[in-house]
Amino acid sequence: MTLQQLKYVTTVAETGTITDAAAKLYISQPSLTSAIQQLEKEMNIVIFHRTNKGITPSREGEVFLGYARQVLEQAAILEDKYKGNDGGKRQFCVSTQHYSFAVNAFVDLIKKYGQDEYDFSLRETQTYEIIEDVARMKSEIGILYLNEFNEKVIRKILKEQKLSFQELFVAKPHVFISSGHPLAGKKSVSASDLEPYPFLSFEQGEHNSFYFSEEIFAQEERKKNIRVRDRATLFNLLIGLNGYTVCSGVIDKKLNGQDIIAVPLEDDQDMHIGYIMHQKGQLGRLASTYLEALRKYI
């Protein structure tokens, strides 16, 4: 196995076709196909499924590609240190629940390490997909929270996937509401205060269990429920419908505007927000820098 072979398979995964990958790598299609087949034979795995519609990674191939990207990143760091060059194209991916501080830290990372060429991904996605992304090494780290209600279930899944949870901070529950909401002037709000208003939450797709909800107390019965896919839509509905969502209380007014405020929720339960990674994994320089930036915003 060589670094060149690892570069070949990650490029194929990135482009989705042998033709495009060969053109990008400046080699012939037969040479690229042969190199991949040799690697698959040496590793005794099938990295790609080949169909008439293109080429896609197998499940074990996705895990292998995750390791390959880490190896290439470490090789780039070595070249950066000892050859005095830029270490090549930077690649990094993080999967996260919908947190503004996760976006802010991502911006800081790009400002620090963004060069002429980089390939960074920020996946604001569903909770189960965050776990799956890190397990399959699509993402180096994932950002989510644990609390008394979901911890047992989430930790069981993390253990099965050989992932660990590292706490970043503990947050008291708040609600996000619009600055013009009837409850905006209160120092804190209770569940009974919120009862007349629509509760907004992020949908969790086929894994739509309360244990995967991004919102603490999502299991509570409510008369008015609205589920959305993205943060912009949720904030627009908060303003337009006098809705609310339950959150950590960490908000960035530059990112989210002046129309959304955080008000403490009267409850003693905590949110333990942290990141997940492989148990035996070692964070790369980009992941470590990203976590440093996260701590600045929380």
TrEMBL record:
UniProt keyword Ribosomal protein, yes or no: no
Keyword Transcription: yes
Signal peptide: none
CDD domains documented for this protein: PBP2_LTTR_substrate
InterPro entries tied to this protein: LysR_HTH_N, LysR_subst-bd, WH-like_DNA-bd_sf, WH_DNA-bd_sf
GO molecular function (one): DNA binding
This protein's UniProt keywords: DNA-binding, Transcription, Transcription regulation
SUPFAM superfamilies, alphabetized: Periplasmic binding protein-like II (SSF53850), Winged helix' DNA-binding domain (SSF46785)
GO CC terms in record: protein-DNA complex
Residue ranges annotated for the HTH lysR-type domain, each copy included: 1-58
Gene3D superfamilies: Periplasmic binding protein-like II, Winged helix-like DNA-binding domain superfamily/Winged helix DNA-binding domain
Family: Belongs to the LysR transcriptional regulatory family.
Protein name: LysR family transcriptional regulator
Biological source species: Roseburia porci
